[in-house]
Amino acid sequence: MYASRNFKTKKALKEAVAAGQSVTVFQPGPFAVASPVDGWVSVEGPHYPAPHSWYAQALLKNGIVIKIK
């Protein structure tokens, strides 16, 4: 899954979540399924076609990322 904004680093994603910004996730592609609303998901970035340079686990609550590890 990808974060709604194209974060270049995991640190930038963590900072956005810590600052209280509303970050959501989505699954791209023709065979994508609906994004979960609650629970842990795997997130990667930056977005394709750039090579992925970071990976994270994101905790979702009501579709919003509330924690990154």
Question: How does this structure look, described?
Answer:
This protein has 69 residues and is mainly beta. It has one domain. It contains 1 helix and 5 strands. Strands 3-4-5 form a 3-stranded antiparallel β-sheet, with helices on one face. It has a two-stranded antiparallel ribbon with strand order 1-2. It is globular and about 30 Å long. The relative contact order is 0.30.
Q: Could you give a quick summary of the protein structure above?
A:
This protein is mostly beta strands. The protein contains 1 helix and 5 strands, in the order βαββββ.
Mean pLDDT: 94
Number of helical segments? 1
The sequence of SSEs as H and E is EHEEEE
Termini, distance in Å? 15 Å
Which strand order does the major sheet show?
3-4-5
Radius of gyration, rounded?
11 Å
- Indicate the percent of residues in helices: 10-25%
C-alpha geometry: globular
Outline the biggest β-sheet.
3 strands, antiparallel
**Poorly predicted tracts of residues:** none
Query: What portion of the residues fall into strands of 2 or more residues?
Result: 25-35%
Number of strands: 5
Number of domains: 1
Question: What would the keywords be for this entry?
Answer:
two-stranded antiparallel ribbon, 1 helix, single chain, three-stranded antiparallel sheet, mainly beta, 69 residues
